[in-house]
Amino acid sequence: MVKESGLPREELFITTKAGLDYFDLMLIHWPMQDDLGTYRVLEEAYQAGKLRSIGVSNSNRAQLGEITANFQTVPVVDQIETCVLRQQTKLHQYLADHQIVHEAWSPLGEGAGRLFNHPVLKDLAAKYDHTTAQVMLRYLTQRQIMVIPRSTNPAHMAANINIFDFALTAADLARVQALDEKFSLSGWPSSMTLDEDY
Known about the structure:
Blueprint: H1 2-5, E1 26-28, H2 35-47, E2 54-57, H3 61-70, E3 77-81, H4 89-97, E4 101-105, H5 113-116, H6 119-128, H7 132-142, E5 146-148, H8 154-161, H9 170-177
Parallel strand pairs: 1-2, 2-3, 3-4, 4-5
Helix pairs in contact: 6-7
């Protein structure tokens, strides 16, 4: 599919699965028993030019600390469950301090109705003349969190991108921040609650 597109390879950013000479980013999807061994292989691929960058998913501060203490190559990203109900404040600060991008998967809370109908978010959507989804995504991007909302609906995809023509005020950012329940919609394992008090 990539070759058939006719686009120059250097204009594409490929994370995985593409039968190419190199990948732009490869993620360790979940912490396992031999994270250091896995990371070692990825670092070797990085040093050999087969990877442009290495990232992790679902890793807490202790797991990231072990990686950064044992390798020269720091992960560029940690992809973790993040939405307005689970804002990951402590881990976010750790990532910022170590220049690791905080990437939110499920930034819209897996489409949970209680989020899209939340009175605070609906009030802000009306105030800014945007949807509640756009308010949630804008809140996260204003906190320097990369978002990857999932949708197969072209109209929703377009709306998810169209979030940079407004900015929440400091007072409105605080209103959304107060919605944090430290609640996992995906049921993270106990190892990921080591960073609680986010």
